[in-house]
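User: Predict structure, ligand S-adenosylmethionine.
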Amino acid sequence: MKVDPRPWRDAWWDALYGPAGFYRGVEGPAGHFTTSAHGPLGAVLAAVVAHLADQAGVCRVVDLACGRGELLAHLHDQRPDLELLGVDIVERPSSLAPGIDWLRSAGGPALPDELRDLDALVLAHEWLDVVPCTIAQVDDEGVLRTVLVDEDGTETLGEELTGEDRSWADTWWPDARPGERVEVGLSRDRAFADLVSRNPAGLTVAVDYGHTKATRPAQGTLTAYREGSLTEAVPDGRRDLTAHVATDSLGADEVVRQRALLHRLGLDGATPSHATASTDPLGYVRALGRASSITALTDPHGLGGFHWAMTRHTRVHA
Ligand SMILES: C[S@@+](CC[C@H](N)C(=O)[O-])C[C@H]1O[C@@H](n2cnc3c(N)ncnc32)[C@H](O)[C@@H]1O
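Assistant: Predicted complex:
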Protein backbone atom coordinates (compact mmCIF):
# COMPACT_ATOMS: atom_id res chain seq x y z
CA MET A 1 0.00 0.00 0.00
CA LYS A 2 1.41 3.37 -1.00
CA VAL A 3 1.88 5.80 1.87
CA ASP A 4 0.88 9.44 1.25
CA PRO A 5 3.67 12.03 1.39
CA ARG A 6 4.24 12.97 5.02
CA PRO A 7 6.49 15.24 7.04
CA TRP A 8 10.13 14.19 6.96
CA ARG A 9 10.20 13.84 10.74
CA ASP A 10 7.63 11.01 10.70
CA ALA A 11 9.04 9.22 7.66
CA TRP A 12 12.57 9.51 9.11
CA TRP A 13 11.55 7.97 12.46
CA ASP A 14 9.93 4.96 10.77
CA ALA A 15 12.88 4.52 8.42
CA LEU A 16 15.38 4.33 11.30
CA TYR A 17 13.42 2.96 14.26
CA GLY A 18 10.22 1.34 12.91
CA PRO A 19 9.87 -2.46 12.89
CA ALA A 20 12.00 -2.71 9.73
CA GLY A 21 14.07 0.36 10.60
CA PHE A 22 17.67 0.77 9.53
CA TYR A 23 19.06 0.71 13.08
CA ARG A 24 17.33 -2.58 13.86
CA GLY A 25 19.61 -4.33 11.34
CA VAL A 26 21.98 -7.00 12.68
CA GLU A 27 25.04 -5.30 11.21
CA GLY A 28 24.55 -2.18 13.39
CA PRO A 29 25.83 1.30 12.53
CA ALA A 30 29.45 0.09 12.32
CA GLY A 31 28.42 -2.13 9.39
CA HIS A 32 27.62 1.01 7.36
CA PHE A 33 29.92 3.79 8.52
CA THR A 34 32.83 4.48 10.81
CA THR A 35 32.69 6.89 13.72
CA SER A 36 35.25 8.07 16.26
CA ALA A 37 34.01 5.33 18.58
CA HIS A 38 35.44 2.60 16.36
CA GLY A 39 38.92 1.11 16.10
CA PRO A 40 42.02 3.03 17.20
CA LEU A 41 40.17 6.37 17.26
CA GLY A 42 37.78 4.80 19.76
CA ALA A 43 40.69 4.06 22.11
CA VAL A 44 41.59 7.76 22.22
CA LEU A 45 37.95 8.82 22.52
CA ALA A 46 37.54 6.41 25.44
CA ALA A 47 40.55 7.95 27.20
CA VAL A 48 39.00 11.42 26.76
CA VAL A 49 35.66 10.23 28.14
CA ALA A 50 37.34 8.56 31.13
CA HIS A 51 39.26 11.76 31.78
CA LEU A 52 36.07 13.84 31.73
CA ALA A 53 34.41 11.35 34.09
CA ASP A 54 37.31 11.71 36.52
CA GLN A 55 37.16 15.49 36.27
CA ALA A 56 33.43 15.40 36.96
CA GLY A 57 34.02 13.16 39.98
CA VAL A 58 31.78 10.33 38.74
CA CYS A 59 32.55 6.64 38.46
CA ARG A 60 29.83 5.74 35.98
CA VAL A 61 29.70 6.25 32.22
CA VAL A 62 26.46 5.91 30.28
CA ASP A 63 26.90 5.65 26.53
CA LEU A 64 23.54 6.61 25.07
CA ALA A 65 23.04 5.52 21.46
CA CYS A 66 26.11 3.35 21.79
CA GLY A 67 25.68 1.29 18.60
CA ARG A 68 26.85 -2.16 19.58
CA GLY A 69 29.00 -0.92 22.47
CA GLU A 70 32.24 -0.28 20.58
CA LEU A 71 33.31 2.68 22.74
CA LEU A 72 32.29 0.86 25.92
CA ALA A 73 34.56 -2.03 24.99
CA HIS A 74 37.50 0.40 24.81
CA LEU A 75 36.49 1.96 28.12
CA HIS A 76 36.19 -1.45 29.74
CA ASP A 77 39.71 -2.37 28.58
CA GLN A 78 41.24 0.89 29.78
CA ARG A 79 39.27 1.52 32.92
CA PRO A 80 37.74 -1.61 34.42
CA ASP A 81 37.07 0.44 37.57
CA LEU A 82 34.32 2.47 35.83
CA GLU A 83 30.70 1.31 35.89
CA LEU A 84 29.53 1.17 32.30
CA LEU A 85 26.05 1.22 30.83
CA GLY A 86 25.16 1.08 27.14
CA VAL A 87 21.81 2.16 25.72
CA ASP A 88 20.60 1.43 22.23
CA ILE A 89 17.50 0.14 20.47
CA VAL A 90 18.54 -3.50 20.10
CA GLU A 91 19.04 -6.39 22.51
CA ARG A 92 22.32 -6.49 24.41
CA PRO A 93 25.00 -7.68 21.96
CA SER A 94 26.34 -11.08 23.05
CA SER A 95 29.91 -9.94 22.31
CA LEU A 96 29.81 -7.30 25.07
CA ALA A 97 32.05 -7.90 28.11
CA PRO A 98 30.03 -9.27 31.06
CA GLY A 99 30.70 -6.23 33.26
CA ILE A 100 28.93 -3.81 30.90
CA ASP A 101 25.24 -3.15 31.65
CA TRP A 102 22.72 -2.59 28.90
CA LEU A 103 19.34 -0.89 28.47
CA ARG A 104 17.08 -1.04 25.49
CA SER A 105 15.49 2.12 24.16
CA ALA A 106 12.73 2.97 21.68
CA GLY A 107 14.82 5.19 19.40
CA GLY A 108 14.87 8.81 18.27
CA PRO A 109 14.04 11.30 21.01
CA ALA A 110 12.55 8.64 23.33
CA LEU A 111 14.59 7.49 26.32
CA PRO A 112 13.92 4.44 28.48
CA ASP A 113 12.07 5.03 31.79
CA GLU A 114 14.82 3.25 33.75
CA LEU A 115 17.34 5.88 32.67
CA ARG A 116 16.95 8.39 35.48
CA ASP A 117 18.45 9.72 38.74
CA LEU A 118 21.91 9.31 37.23
CA ASP A 119 25.15 10.50 38.73
CA ALA A 120 27.30 9.81 35.71
CA LEU A 121 29.09 11.04 32.68
CA VAL A 122 26.37 10.57 30.08
CA LEU A 123 27.72 10.62 26.56
CA ALA A 124 25.53 10.81 23.47
CA HIS A 125 27.96 10.41 20.60
CA GLU A 126 26.25 10.92 17.23
CA TRP A 127 22.77 10.56 18.69
CA LEU A 128 21.14 13.96 18.11
CA ASP A 129 21.90 13.90 14.38
CA VAL A 130 19.67 10.83 14.09
CA VAL A 131 16.87 12.30 16.21
CA PRO A 132 14.40 13.11 13.42
CA CYS A 133 13.48 16.76 13.06
CA THR A 134 11.01 18.79 11.04
CA ILE A 135 12.40 19.91 7.69
CA ALA A 136 10.99 23.12 6.23
CA GLN A 137 11.63 25.06 3.04
CA VAL A 138 10.81 28.57 1.91
CA ASP A 139 8.59 28.57 -1.20
CA ASP A 140 8.78 31.03 -4.11
CA GLU A 141 6.44 33.45 -2.32
CA GLY A 142 8.63 33.47 0.77
CA VAL A 143 6.36 31.20 2.87
CA LEU A 144 8.15 28.67 5.13
CA ARG A 145 6.47 25.28 4.57
CA THR A 146 6.92 21.79 5.99
CA VAL A 147 8.71 19.49 3.53
CA LEU A 148 6.81 16.25 2.86
CA VAL A 149 8.43 13.13 1.47
CA ASP A 150 7.08 9.98 -0.09
CA GLU A 151 8.52 6.47 0.06
CA ASP A 152 10.90 6.95 -2.85
CA GLY A 153 12.28 10.22 -1.49
CA THR A 154 10.28 12.61 -3.70
CA GLU A 155 9.67 15.82 -1.81
CA THR A 156 6.73 18.25 -1.94
CA LEU A 157 5.95 21.31 0.12
CA GLY A 158 3.10 20.99 2.62
CA GLU A 159 1.39 23.45 4.94
CA GLU A 160 2.97 26.63 6.24
CA LEU A 161 5.12 25.90 9.28
CA THR A 162 3.32 27.08 12.43
CA GLY A 163 3.31 26.53 16.18
CA GLU A 164 6.40 25.66 18.22
CA ASP A 165 8.42 24.55 15.20
CA ARG A 166 7.76 27.97 13.65
CA SER A 167 8.77 29.79 16.81
CA TRP A 168 11.98 27.77 16.89
CA ALA A 169 12.72 28.62 13.26
CA ASP A 170 12.00 32.34 13.81
CA THR A 171 14.35 32.40 16.79
CA TRP A 172 17.17 30.12 15.74
CA TRP A 173 17.11 29.95 11.95
CA PRO A 174 15.59 33.25 10.76
CA ASP A 175 15.94 34.94 7.36
CA ALA A 176 15.83 31.82 5.17
CA ARG A 177 15.22 32.88 1.56
CA PRO A 178 13.11 31.27 -1.21
CA GLY A 179 14.47 27.80 -1.98
CA GLU A 180 16.42 27.56 1.29
CA ARG A 181 15.83 24.91 3.94
CA VAL A 182 15.44 25.03 7.70
CA GLU A 183 16.13 21.94 9.82
CA VAL A 184 14.07 22.68 12.90
CA GLY A 185 16.10 21.77 15.98
CA LEU A 186 13.26 21.68 18.50
CA SER A 187 13.10 17.87 18.72
CA ARG A 188 16.86 17.77 19.37
CA ASP A 189 16.66 20.55 21.99
CA ARG A 190 13.94 18.61 23.81
CA ALA A 191 15.76 15.31 23.55
CA PHE A 192 18.94 16.83 24.98
CA ALA A 193 17.01 18.56 27.80
CA ASP A 194 15.33 15.25 28.63
CA LEU A 195 18.71 13.50 28.78
CA VAL A 196 20.18 16.24 30.99
CA SER A 197 17.20 16.04 33.35
CA ARG A 198 17.91 12.34 33.92
CA ASN A 199 21.45 13.04 35.05
CA PRO A 200 20.89 15.50 37.91
CA ALA A 201 24.28 15.00 39.54
CA GLY A 202 26.59 14.43 36.60
CA LEU A 203 27.95 15.70 33.30
CA THR A 204 25.91 15.26 30.12
CA VAL A 205 27.68 15.51 26.79
CA ALA A 206 26.29 15.39 23.24
CA VAL A 207 28.82 15.13 20.42
CA ASP A 208 27.90 15.74 16.80
CA TYR A 209 28.49 17.62 13.59
CA GLY A 210 26.86 20.95 14.28
CA HIS A 211 26.22 24.53 13.30
CA THR A 212 25.31 27.77 15.00
CA LYS A 213 23.37 30.85 13.91
CA ALA A 214 26.45 32.21 12.19
CA THR A 215 27.00 29.02 10.16
CA ARG A 216 23.56 27.63 9.29
CA PRO A 217 23.70 25.66 6.02
CA ALA A 218 21.24 27.35 3.62
CA GLN A 219 20.42 24.12 1.80
CA GLY A 220 20.23 22.02 4.97
CA THR A 221 22.29 18.93 5.71
CA LEU A 222 19.85 16.01 5.57
CA THR A 223 21.70 13.16 3.94
CA ALA A 224 21.98 9.37 3.94
CA TYR A 225 24.70 6.72 4.29
CA ARG A 226 24.64 3.17 3.17
CA GLU A 227 27.49 0.68 3.30
CA GLY A 228 30.03 3.43 3.79
CA SER A 229 28.84 5.67 0.96
CA LEU A 230 26.93 8.89 0.85
CA THR A 231 23.63 8.28 -0.89
CA GLU A 232 20.27 9.93 -1.61
CA ALA A 233 18.00 10.65 1.34
CA VAL A 234 15.17 8.15 0.92
CA PRO A 235 13.14 7.01 3.97
CA ASP A 236 13.16 3.31 2.99
CA GLY A 237 14.81 1.76 6.07
CA ARG A 238 17.84 0.72 4.04
CA ARG A 239 20.12 3.65 4.86
CA ASP A 240 21.04 5.97 7.70
CA LEU A 241 19.37 9.39 7.63
CA THR A 242 21.20 12.16 9.41
CA ALA A 243 21.21 15.95 9.70
CA HIS A 244 23.67 18.16 11.54
CA VAL A 245 22.65 19.61 14.89
CA ALA A 246 21.96 23.25 15.80
CA THR A 247 24.08 23.10 18.94
CA ASP A 248 23.57 26.71 20.04
CA SER A 249 19.87 26.09 20.71
CA LEU A 250 20.44 23.04 22.91
CA GLY A 251 20.81 25.16 26.03
CA ALA A 252 24.09 23.47 27.00
CA ASP A 253 26.43 25.17 29.49
CA GLU A 254 29.26 25.01 27.00
CA VAL A 255 29.76 24.04 23.36
CA VAL A 256 33.36 23.41 22.41
CA ARG A 257 34.93 22.05 19.25
CA GLN A 258 36.52 18.62 19.56
CA ARG A 259 39.88 19.98 18.43
CA ALA A 260 39.87 22.62 21.17
CA LEU A 261 38.74 20.14 23.80
CA LEU A 262 41.46 17.62 22.99
CA HIS A 263 44.07 20.35 22.95
CA ARG A 264 42.80 21.53 26.31
CA LEU A 265 43.39 17.99 27.60
CA GLY A 266 46.94 18.01 26.24
CA LEU A 267 46.22 15.81 23.20
CA ASP A 268 47.83 17.55 20.24
CA GLY A 269 48.97 14.65 18.07
CA ALA A 270 52.68 15.37 18.56
CA THR A 271 54.73 12.41 17.34
CA PRO A 272 56.87 10.57 19.90
CA SER A 273 60.58 11.26 20.07
CA HIS A 274 62.41 9.21 17.47
CA ALA A 275 65.05 8.37 20.06
CA THR A 276 62.62 5.94 21.73
CA ALA A 277 62.35 3.92 18.49
CA SER A 278 65.54 2.03 19.34
CA THR A 279 65.07 1.76 23.10
CA ASP A 280 61.36 0.84 23.05
CA PRO A 281 60.37 -0.04 19.48
CA LEU A 282 56.92 -1.43 20.37
CA GLY A 283 56.13 1.52 22.61
CA TYR A 284 57.27 3.84 19.82
CA VAL A 285 54.96 2.22 17.27
CA ARG A 286 52.04 2.36 19.73
CA ALA A 287 52.72 6.05 20.46
CA LEU A 288 52.93 6.75 16.72
CA GLY A 289 49.54 5.09 16.18
CA ARG A 290 48.02 7.08 19.02
CA ALA A 291 49.47 10.32 17.61
CA SER A 292 47.92 9.61 14.22
CA SER A 293 44.53 8.91 15.85
CA ILE A 294 44.76 12.20 17.73
CA THR A 295 45.66 13.99 14.49
CA ALA A 296 42.52 12.54 12.86
CA LEU A 297 40.35 13.45 15.85
CA THR A 298 41.61 17.03 15.87
CA ASP A 299 41.59 17.65 12.10
CA PRO A 300 39.93 21.10 11.85
CA HIS A 301 38.37 20.14 8.49
CA GLY A 302 37.10 16.80 9.75
CA LEU A 303 36.42 15.23 13.13
CA GLY A 304 38.08 18.11 14.98
CA GLY A 305 35.11 20.26 13.96
CA PHE A 306 32.64 18.14 15.96
CA HIS A 307 30.71 20.09 18.58
CA TRP A 308 30.78 18.90 22.20
CA ALA A 309 27.70 20.30 23.98
CA MET A 310 28.16 19.87 27.72
CA THR A 311 25.95 20.49 30.72
CA ARG A 312 27.26 20.00 34.21
CA HIS A 313 24.99 19.68 37.21
CA THR A 314 26.62 20.43 40.47
CA ARG A 315 26.00 18.00 43.25
CA VAL A 316 23.73 19.45 45.91
CA HIS A 317 24.89 18.44 49.37
CA ALA A 318 22.19 18.11 52.03
C1 LIG B 1 25.08 7.26 14.26
S1 LIG B 1 24.90 5.87 15.31
C2 LIG B 1 26.11 6.24 16.56
C3 LIG B 1 26.59 5.02 17.30
C4 LIG B 1 27.76 5.28 18.27
N1 LIG B 1 27.42 6.23 19.30
C5 LIG B 1 28.97 5.77 17.52
O1 LIG B 1 29.31 6.95 17.62
O2 LIG B 1 29.57 4.96 16.80
C6 LIG B 1 23.38 6.30 16.12
C7 LIG B 1 22.91 5.27 17.12
O3 LIG B 1 21.87 5.90 17.91
C8 LIG B 1 20.97 4.89 18.29
N2 LIG B 1 19.79 5.55 18.85
C9 LIG B 1 18.97 6.42 18.26
N3 LIG B 1 18.03 6.85 19.10
C10 LIG B 1 18.25 6.24 20.29
C11 LIG B 1 17.63 6.30 21.58
N4 LIG B 1 16.58 7.07 21.83
N5 LIG B 1 18.14 5.54 22.55
C12 LIG B 1 19.22 4.76 22.32
N6 LIG B 1 19.86 4.67 21.14
C13 LIG B 1 19.38 5.41 20.14
C14 LIG B 1 20.80 4.13 17.01
O4 LIG B 1 20.17 2.89 17.20
C15 LIG B 1 22.25 4.02 16.55
O5 LIG B 1 22.88 2.89 17.05
